[in-house]
Design goal:
Elements lengths: L29 E5 L7 H18 L3 E5 L6 H10 L2 H4 L4 E4 L7 E4 L2
Parallel strand pairs: 1-2
Antiparallel strand pairs: 2-4, 3-4
Length: 110
């Protein structure tokens, strides 16, 4: 692979051009939160989601996998409602629900 030429350090970063993407051999880090043990307590669910988001941001995790389980779908709706809050939306880039596995939500971070 050819090295990407770098601009001199005295050039502001906005003028250095695009940063190279992740190397193909770099693995994406995923943090998993299983909500099965606390599915009956809304306060614990909110706390677990908030703590996981903050831990992921602090440690540089790329994706959070939340496992609400399939069930009736109420827990999944609860998680999506939590993530839709204005102050929480600032913490992640996008949400992805798996069409082949309704019991899983992926949260992609910045």
């Amino acid at each position: 692979m050819t090295p990407v030429p770098q601009a001199p350090e005295d050039v502001p970063s906005a003028y250095r051009g695009p940063r190279p993407g992740p190397h193909p051999s770099e693995a994406i880090t995923v943090l998993t939160l299983d909500l099965h043990p606390i599915f009956r307590n809304n306060r614990d669910i909110d706390l677990a989601l908030r703590e996981t988001l903050f831990r992921a941001a602090r440690t540089g995790v790329d994706t959070i996998q939340v496992i609400p389980g399939k069930g009736t779908g109420q827990l999944k709706k609860r998680v999506l409602a939590f993530l839709a809050q204005k102050h929480i939306k600032k913490l992640y880039l996008r949400i992805e629900t798996d069409p082949t596995n309704t019991g899983r939500i992926l949260i992609h971070l910045h």
